[in-house]
Amino acid sequence: MSCFQDFLSLAQVQLGQVEIKCPITECNKHLDEATILFNLPHDDIIKYKYFLELSRIDSSTKPCPQCKHFTTFKRKIHIPNPSKSEIKFKVQCPSCQFVWCFKCHSPWHEGVNCREYKKGDKLLRHWANEIEYGQRNAQKCPRCKVHIQRTEGCDHMTCSQCNTNFCYRCGERYRQLRFFGDHTSNLSIFGCKYRYLPERPHVRRLVRGSVCAGKLLIAPLLLVIGLALELSQLS
């Protein structure tokens, strides 16, 4: 069963496949949707349903670049001015309010056409990924996707556009649960990947996952002890 689950996860998560052939060599049929969903872990079920919905839509519907909410484009009245002809593709996601361009599936680019934006965005991404003075030239906000350059200070950044807190080194959001630690904790599942065994990601995930599992197992025991102490004090 484990091998079969690994096969399904690899097919739909790594490759984004929706129609998955039976792994048995002698069988030429595709696995039915119910079988796939039954054998996938929860996180992969969400991804599979996303790919499934994506395969069933036409070109008039696209997912939001930020939250993946599907939006159907309703063509607006034609604007005769050529310099503003692409403004009719400006849409706002009803779920997360993110403003984006339906034509090129990018954040909205005011005053710049899609071709110029894509060209400039490619050059920007190339520049941002270059390492100078021991750090990236710029890091992209994980929420609104704007590039931010750090001139001084620590890795903890706050986006000036959407106030999202994120790490400049890895680009991930700052997440924190007091019991499990935060982004600066070496052994926390929310910790930065560069803080602990950056060259050995599999070992890092194994260690952090084991620590998290241990805390989950001991949490009920601590709760019982705490309640027992409280009851003893009341009595």
Automatic annotation (TrEMBL):
Transmembrane segments: none
The EC number(s) this enzyme carries: 2.3.2.31
Catalytic activity: [E2 ubiquitin-conjugating enzyme]-S-ubiquitinyl-L-cysteine + [acceptor protein]-L-lysine = [E2 ubiquitin-conjugating enzyme]-L-cysteine + [acceptor protein]-N(6)-ubiquitinyl-L-lysine
Entry keyword set: Metal-binding, Repeat, Transferase, Ubl conjugation pathway, Zinc, Zinc-finger
CDD domains associated with the record: BRcat_RBR_RNF217, Rcat_RBR_RNF217
Domain RING-type: from-to ranges: 1-196
Annotated PROSITE patterns: TRIAD (PS51873)
Pfam families: IBR, IBR_1
Keyword match Transferase: yes
Entry keyword Metal-binding: yes
Database matches in SUPFAM superfamilies: RING/U-box (SSF57850)
Lineage top rank: taxon: Eukaryota
Catalytic class of the enzyme: transferase
Protein known as: RBR-type E3 ubiquitin transferase
Lineage summary: Eukaryota, Metazoa, Chordata, Craniata, Vertebrata
